[in-house]
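User: Working on a comparison across species. This one is NitT/TauT family transport system ATP-binding protein from Actinoplanes regularis. Can you predict its structure so I can line it up against the others?
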Amino acid sequence: MLEVKGLRKVYSSGSREVEALRDLTFTVDNGDLVCLVGPSGCGKTTLLRCVSGLLTPTSGEVRLGGSPVTGPPPGMAVVFQEYGRSLFPWMSVRANVELPLKQKKVARARRKELVESSLDAVGLTGTADAYPWQLSGGMQQRVAIARAVAYEPETLLMDEPFAAVDAQTRADLEDLVRALWQRLKVTVLFVTHDIDEAVYLGRRVVMLSSSPTVVQDELVVDLPAERDQLHTRADPKFIELRTRVYEQIQLAKKTVQK
Ligand SMILES: Nc1ncnc2c1ncn2[C@@H]1O[C@H](COP(=O)(O)OP(=O)(O)OP(=O)(O)O)[C@@H](O)[C@H]1O
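Assistant: Here's the predicted structure for NitT/TauT family transport system ATP-binding protein from Actinoplanes regularis:
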């Protein structure tokens, strides 16, 4: 289980202080898919950086499987928003996907298998020798997802991973994430500012207030596990859930935290 308890993060530079996160508490059960949704600038990236051990919180803590997270935990992979910056342009797709496996000291033959199966899983069979700059934005983001999948993480963090791709690609990638989550039984924490995306993807949605950020509300997405872009988004239940999330986010914007 991933536990975030009383998390607070204040950035200080000189005399200027920004309280990005005030007091965040929530949990993600093993194998769950939880979407965090909140207004722009509410500290979603700060939160994921704390969860992935890249940033030390000012107070509070993050625990994974009962142990405190004090640095990047083994068994965790992160997919960032900007695929352009997360892939190394001078390395082939294969080398990009393989790099974390080398760092994990996976044997060469197994690395080859994992690279191939993860590229297959994201629909990029046959692109291993291409360079990222030869691929479209959506394909580059698939490479970033393949790299995370190849790592065989127990926990996958995704920070607005589809913000920079077109609507059709985004819909395809959303379905890809749900399919991979169902197949791999990985725990997913997915951050987005897009309410529809949060409800479509998640089994639970955690709503954040605007900065300084607290958990505004949480809801269980009791839609059928089999979802598809056309029917799920037209389902009255989907519309009811997205309305609830929307109302909470609007409320959060109006409630200025003191
Ligand atoms: N390194 C930093 N130093 C100072 N302030 C920072 C730093 N990083 C973020 N902040 C501030 O913390 C707040 C939260 O930023 P963060 O990037 O975590 O939000 P976000 O919800 O991910 O934003 P967006 O949705 O726009 O990507 C903002 O007010 C931001 O200006």
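For your comparison, note: Residues 11, 13, 18, 20, 40-46, 193, 211 surround adenosine-5'-triphosphate (CB under 6 Å).

User: Helpful, thanks.
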